[in-house]
């Protein structure tokens, strides 16, 4: 009953709004987009859309003063007395006449510098005025594409029927359109609680939009603004190290306050800085407006051409606060001749500024959805929507929503599936996919010629795989079931191996998942698989270096994982394993055919008859936990979505016990822990840390397989974006241990802080990495590495490479080497 009462009250309050609407143009009749429109001394506000059309809900009937504010144009204040429910008010705005008193331009006495210095000095005071508030929030987001081809690199571009339905014959149109209406509670620097009242996505009846206030907060009173990297604010404490300023003029707003228009230019083009204009109020030195650009290369986002951020603030004479009422974020991006653009519009209204919040106001849940938030009808949106839809947006909603009814019908879905499910004779070799969308089921056969599974190693020779996968899912409750079988055949070894797996996820709230698997496969001694199949194949066939060492594993195991508390994930596994040694069966290579491969024994590389262990079997039980302190999450009706709080580290804990072995000597216990943390250092980059430690018990004579193996690298090829879990020059099994161990990995990426300032080198638009890696185990001298290198290297927009110089030291032996990082290998392998 209470919920019905609140809903009725909401609609009652909406229905008692008076609405002022119209079109805003310049003197020539051209529509003006994103003009701020608000009622004087209130927090009722909106903006015009791209066609200059606006609508403003006014709470009180009677005499109202409506203000129209647009950068570059004179602010207008118009008295209106709406007697009817709706009033049409068209406005023509005049260009602003900026004045600039005659001054002598002296580098030592730049008038803009004095204003910026005052803005910096008053930054904390002005920021504190809006340090905590509640507000209504509206956002509208849209992605568009232009010139999307039907094929790219010979492969069909398939966006799905929902996204592609509004593209014309040239591949141009709206890919995504959504709106969100919410109530937010915020406290600086980053405490937020958001309740989604209504959410709408064009052509999607589920409508859980990601256009949230928590993902759109950009505060120029902070020293940096977070995009893909931290961008320096034009009024940061160290802003004069990055910017030059020019006072281009002054004007007076509707309250007769002087506004200074200041042009912001970067001192160095490659730095993480803005360019454009910031408007500063005289005397209080608060921000009046911001209109700045960020080229993509300054954010290390090469595919983004340019991003524009606009903010406007309004002044309330009652509480003397300048508060942000609108924000627009737009970008252009592209590659391969395809152009993308996006625009997000945000409206903040109905502010309240309490002096404090209760202690339990903020929790780990940052966003929650009201019941049926995605079910609001058109009448609701037409009444409450602050920014009117453009003709293009209205058409997109109508077209996609009408098509949705058809596309959700079983008849349509079955017809589309029938077309895609047609079987061709070549599918026997190349693979076949079958999908029943209406029943949420799919089947995949990888084919007899699955080239993605092909690889080479000295145990199996050329080996290739295939397999079958069945999936069933439920989007509403997050349940899913997957059953798959993989087969692999080694031609030199002449042996077929088969594994199978059953996985069931119970929900998308705590992500409880049960999996059962078993079969026979080849496995690396280091179960972290430090050598990829692709790298090993190239290393063996071209250079005759067979670093991958394998054994035969017959296994059966059951695994259960679940989030047991906020930020705490528990993983339990019980398995039976039978291990058999394997030997090289081939000496084939493309080159160096007179050379010999090393043996498959990682301990005795020149002994081809002795194995690293004896055949044996045992049971293993493992219990692991991952703890993300301060974990934040979004609650949606269809699931819970977690976000790690970057202020805190991630802690990993593990206990492993081997028991019921074929011989007592194979049984042992091991405890382990790891701490992972990224420490942001302002605009000077980020320091990544990964510390690991552990200890074995009763493990004097265990199998070499169960030793703790560390991720070395002898190929001089790096595959990861970051090297926080690898020793770049250490032989793979040279430091394996069945005792205690401690390893540390630290890597600082300057994110351009140093590289942007070095002439010529800054043309690379790269970043500098400095790293340190150390390993300590008993009865052996510590191993250490120092690295320095460049990241974000490549050609044009494709920054796929990294290059590092590495110096290592252990027991008086020093090594030096170069590691080439190829990040695309993460995807290919």
TrEMBL record:
<feature type="signal peptide">
    <location>
        <begin position="1"/>
        <end position="18"/>
    </location>
</feature>
<dbReference type="InterPro" id="IPR008969">
    <property type="entry name" value="CarboxyPept-like_regulatory"/>
</dbReference>
<keyword id="KW-0378">Hydrolase</keyword>
<dbReference type="Pfam" id="PF13715">
    <property type="entry name" value="CarbopepD_reg_2"/>
</dbReference>
<keyword id="KW-0732">Signal</keyword>
<dbReference type="GO" id="GO:0004180">
    <property type="term" value="F:carboxypeptidase activity"/>
</dbReference>
<dbReference type="InterPro" id="IPR043741">
    <property type="entry name" value="DUF5686"/>
</dbReference>
<keyword id="KW-0121">Carboxypeptidase</keyword>
<keyword id="KW-0645">Protease</keyword>
<protein>
    <submittedName>
        <fullName>DUF5686 and carboxypeptidase regulatory-like domain-containing protein</fullName>
    </submittedName>
</protein>
<dbReference type="Pfam" id="PF18939">
    <property type="entry name" value="DUF5686"/>
</dbReference>
């Amino acid at each position: 009953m209470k919920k019905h009462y609140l809903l009725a009250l909401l609609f009652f309050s909406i229905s008692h709004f008076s609405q002022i609407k119209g079109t805003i143009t310049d003197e020539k009749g051209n529509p003006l987009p994103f003009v701020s429109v608000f009622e004087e001394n209130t927090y009722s506000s909106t903006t015009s859309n791209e066609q200059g059309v606006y609508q403003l809900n006014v709470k009180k009937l009677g005499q109202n003063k409506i203000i129209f504010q647009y950068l570059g144009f004179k602010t207008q204040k118009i008295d209106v007395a709406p007697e009817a429910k709706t009033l049409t008010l068209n406005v023509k705005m005049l260009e602003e006449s900026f004045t600039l008193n005659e001054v002598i331009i002296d580098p030592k006495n730049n008038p803009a510098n004095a204003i910026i210095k005052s803005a910096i000095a008053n930054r904390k005071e002005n920021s504190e005025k809006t340090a905590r508030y509640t507000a209504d929030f509206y956002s509208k987001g849209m992605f568009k594409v232009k010139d999307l081809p039907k094929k790219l690199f010979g492969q069909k571009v398939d966006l799905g029927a929902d996204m592609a339905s509004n593209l014309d014959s040239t591949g141009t149109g709206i890919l995504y359109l959504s709106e969100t209406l919410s109530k937010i509670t915020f406290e600086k620097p980053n405490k937020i609680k958001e309740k989604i009242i209504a959410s709408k996505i064009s052509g999607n009846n589920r409508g859980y939009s990601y256009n949230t206030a928590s993902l759109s907060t950009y505060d120029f009173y902070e020293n940096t603004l977070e995009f893909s990297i931290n961008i320096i604010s034009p009024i940061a404490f160290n802003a004069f190290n990055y910017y030059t300023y020019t006072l281009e003029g002054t004007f007076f707003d509707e309250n007769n306050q002087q506004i200074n228009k200041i042009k912001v230019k970067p001192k160095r083009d490659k730095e993480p800085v803005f360019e454009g204009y910031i408007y500063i109020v005289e005397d209080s030195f608060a921000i009046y407006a911001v209109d700045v650009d960020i080229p993509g290369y300054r954010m290390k986002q090469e595919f983004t051409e340019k991003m524009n951020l606009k903010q406007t603030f309004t002044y309330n004479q009652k509480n003397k606060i300048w508060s942000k009422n609108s924000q627009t974020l737009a970008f252009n991006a592209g590659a391969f001749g395809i152009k993308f653009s996006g625009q997000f519009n945000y409206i903040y209204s109905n502010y309240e500024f309490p002096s404090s919040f209760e202690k339990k106001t903020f929790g780990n849940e940052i966003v929650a959805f009201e019941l049926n938030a995605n079910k609001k009808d058109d009448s609701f949106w037409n009444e409450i929507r602050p920014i009117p839809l453009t003709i293009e947006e209205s058409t997109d909603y109508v077209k996609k929503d009408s098509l949705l009814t058809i596309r959700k019908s079983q008849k349509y879905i079955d017809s589309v599936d029938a077309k895609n499910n047609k079987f061709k004779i070549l599918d026997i070799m190349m693979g076949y996919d079958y999908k029943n969308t209406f029943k949420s089921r799919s089947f995949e056969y990888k084919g007899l010629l699955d080239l993605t599974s092909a690889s080479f190693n000295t145990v199996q020779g050329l080996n290739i795989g295939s397999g079958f996968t069945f999936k069933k899912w439920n989007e509403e409750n997050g349940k899913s079931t997957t059953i798959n079988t993989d087969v692999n055949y080694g031609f030199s070894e002449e042996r077929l191996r088969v594994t199978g797996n059953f996985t069931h996820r119970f929900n998308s709230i705590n992500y409880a998942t049960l999996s059962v698997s078993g079969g026979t496969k080849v496995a690396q001694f280091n179960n972290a698989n430090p050598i990829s199949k692709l790298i090993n194949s190239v290393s063996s066939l071209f250079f005759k270096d067979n670093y991958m060492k394998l054994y035969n594993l017959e296994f059966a195991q059951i695994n259960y994982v679940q989030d047991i508390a906020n930020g705490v994930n528990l993983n339990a596994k019980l398995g039976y394993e039978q291990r058999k040694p394997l030997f090289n069966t081939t000496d084939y290579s493309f080159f160096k055919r007179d050379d010999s491969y090393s043996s498959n024994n990682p301990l005795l590389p020149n002994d081809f008859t002795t194995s690293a262990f004896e055949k044996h079997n045992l049971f293993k039980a493992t219990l692991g936990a991952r703890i993300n302190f301060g974990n934040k999450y979004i609650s949606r009706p269809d699931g819970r979505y977690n976000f790690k709080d970057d202020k805190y580290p991630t802690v990993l804990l593990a206990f492993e016990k081997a028991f019921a072995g074929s011989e007592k000597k194979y049984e042992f216990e091991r405890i382990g822990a790891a701490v992972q943390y990224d420490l942001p250092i302002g605009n000077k980059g980020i320091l990544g840390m990964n510390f690991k430690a552990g200890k074995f018990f009763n493990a004097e004579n265990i199998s070499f397989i169960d030793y703790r193996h560390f991720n070395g690298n002898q190929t001089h090829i790096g595959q990861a974006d970051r090297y926080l879990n690898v020793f770049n020059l250490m032989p793979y099994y040279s430091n394996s241990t069945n005792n205690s161990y401690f390893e540390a990995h630290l890597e600082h990426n300057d994110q351009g802080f140093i590289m942007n300032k070095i002439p010529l080198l800054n043309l690379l638009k790269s970043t500098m990495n400095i790293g340190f890696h150390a390993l300590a185990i008993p009865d052996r001298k510590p191993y250490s590495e120092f690295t320095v290198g460049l990241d974000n290297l490549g050609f044009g927009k494709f920054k796929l490479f990294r290059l590092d110089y590495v110096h290592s030291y252990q027991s008086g032996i020093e090594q030096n080497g170069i590691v080439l990082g190829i990040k695309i290998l993460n995807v290919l392998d």
